[in-house]
Design a protein that fits this description.
Helix content: 55-70%
Low-confidence stretches: 153-159
Radius of gyration: 15 Å
Order of helices and strands: HHHHHHHHH
Mean pLDDT: 87
Shape: globular
Largest sheet: none
Number of domains: 1
Strand content: under 5%
Distance between the termini: 18 Å
Length: about 160
């Protein structure tokens, strides 16, 4: 498990990236780029389309989608016949989704926004003080970073 200060650093880094204007998925990937042996820029580029519930579709929360990406990157390579590795990966992904659902009641971005009385918009919004004051997404980013750190702590960087 990572030390508490390292976990706090990752949560803080994810929030900093989010408040710099990166989307929810980019904030998670950027904070965990080192454990995937990627640069923050490369990691954030790879997951950029997951933001706002996958390409602004308001499907699965982008922060959670990015955490699933990180989880996959931290697992041993899963080959076509490696059923045990697939089973372990899927179990870890399902545990992550279950913890998120337990905390928030759903993994769906649109439902999360509506439950916080933040009506989903059809296009990306300008990131400013009003945006951040109306949207609950920073809370989801922080929580996902904490959940991911808890599950990813022992794996360390990919070789």
């Amino acid at each position: 498990m990572q030390s508490d200060s390292k976990s706090f650093d990752r949560v803080q880094k994810a929030l900093e990236l989010f408040f710099e204007g990166y989307n929810c998925s980019q904030a998670i990937a950027g904070a965990f780029a080192d454990v995937m042996a990627l640069s923050p820029e490369a990691a954030m580029r790879l997951v950029a389309g997951f933001g706002a519930g996958t390409g602004d579709h308001k499907g699965m929360c982008g922060a959670l989608s990015s955490a699933i990406f990180v989880t996959g990157a931290l697992h041993e390579p899963v080959g076509p016949a490696d059923l045990a590795a697939k089973k372990q990966l899927y179990a870890d992904v399902n545990a992550l989704k279950a913890e998120f659902t337990e905390k928030f009641g759903t993994t769906n971005c649109g439902e999360l926004l509506r439950s916080a009385k933040a009506l989903p918009k059809p296009d990306p919004s300008e990131r400013n003080a009003e945006y951040y004051s109306r949207r609950p997404c920073a809370h989801f980013v922080a929580t996902v970073a904490q959940l991911l750190e808890k599950g990813a702590g022992d794996r360390g960087p990919r070789k």
